[in-house]
């Protein structure tokens, strides 16, 4: 039990540190946004590259990617169906019931407790997730609120994303067996060590950023509580139906993967959701979306800590 507490303590303390830094005005919002760009464009891609370049790639992982894309789209359709029920209806439902804050919360939570060496158990869920978010989620969001159509710019942005590049490059080097060159060539060995240093920044910086952003507006609590409850109920129900009916037939029984899948399901909506809603809709929808993301984040962390204490 003491060992579990020692693993959970960094999560709690770094979140508190981020919140404390905001309350004491130790760092400006603009600086936090700059740090977030470093995380998204450098630190997190470094973690993903190192994970995929060394993991054992199995053919079932590619099938799992297709399943995850389908699963996320089913969640979106569930949000549409829920809007048929008057007292649960909210135009944000379809966009709240699907999509996860995978990179900015799922990876640091899982890595902190289970270690970098086991990170592949959750990152294999990330390929399908990122493809869904880039090609389907944000486009549907744009078309819903701005009445725009799919454009080639989406594919261009997808190909330019540091996260996508790091995953593809890691898989390519892994499949072609080029990993050994990072150990044999001094220059590349130094490059790989640099990538490792950048990757080590990801978890602490992400948790501090999350702690900094924990802020709820009372005016929108009723709507955000309803959206959060609907999201968690739908995702857990459909998520475990998909797991028992499909995923368990693809992936061999693996306790660490089961923990990773639970972590994946309880994650909040993407942190970028309020930004996109604010850009494509109105200020009220943006504030409701932001409240929902913050509330879901707090709930996710509480559930994760409780799960670890009970299961591990």
UniProtKB/TrEMBL annotation:
Cellular compartments per GO CC: membrane
InterPro entries per UniProt: Mem_transp_PIN-like
Compartments, record wording: Membrane
GO BP: any one term: transmembrane transport
Transmembrane segments: 6-22, 34-55, 61-82, 94-110, 122-141, 162-182, 194-216, 228-247, 259-277, 289-310
Keyword set, alphabetical order: Cell membrane, Membrane, Transmembrane, Transmembrane helix, Transport
Topology term for the membrane: Multi-pass membrane protein
Principal subcellular localization: membrane
Entry protein name: Malate permease
């Amino acid at each position: 039990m003491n060992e579990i507490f020692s693993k959970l303590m960094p999560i709690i303390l770094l979140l508190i540190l981020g919140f404390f830094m905001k309350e004491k005005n130790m760092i400006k919002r603009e600086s936090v946004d700059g740090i977030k760009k470093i995380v998204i464009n450098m630190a997190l891609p470094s973690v993903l590259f190192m994970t995929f370049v060394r993991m054992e790639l199995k053919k079932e992982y590619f099938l799992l990617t297709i399943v995850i894309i389908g699963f996320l789209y089913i969640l979106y359709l569930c949000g549409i169906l829920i809007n048929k029920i008057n007292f649960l209806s909210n135009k944000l439902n379809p966009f709240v019931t699907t999509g996860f804050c995978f990179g900015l919360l799922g990876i640091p939570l899982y890595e902190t407790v289970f270690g970098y060496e086991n990170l592949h158990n959750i990152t294999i869920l990330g390929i399908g997730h990122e493809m869904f978010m880039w090609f389907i989620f944000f486009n549907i969001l744009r078309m819903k609120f701005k009445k725009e159509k799919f454009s080639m710019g989406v594919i261009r942005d997808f190909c330019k994303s540091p996260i996508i590049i790091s995953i593809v490059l890691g898989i390519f080097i892994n499949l072609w067996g080029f990993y050994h060159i990072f150990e044999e060539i001094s220059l590349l060995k130094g490059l790989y060590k640099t990538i490792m240093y950048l990757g080590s920044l990801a978890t602490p910086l992400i948790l501090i950023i999350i702690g900094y952003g924990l802020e709820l507006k009372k005016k929108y609590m009723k709507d955000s509580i309803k959206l959060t409850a609907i999201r968690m109920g739908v995702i857990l129900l459909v998520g475990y139906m998909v797991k028992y009916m499909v995923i368990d037939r693809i992936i061999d029984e693996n306790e660490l993967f089961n923990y990773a899948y639970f972590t994946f399901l309880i994650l909040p909506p993407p942190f970028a959701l309020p930004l996109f809603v604010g850009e494509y809709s109105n200020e009220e929808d943006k504030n409701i979306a932001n409240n929902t993301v913050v509330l879901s984040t707090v709930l996710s962390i509480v559930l994760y800590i409780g799960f670890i204490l009970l299961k591990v």
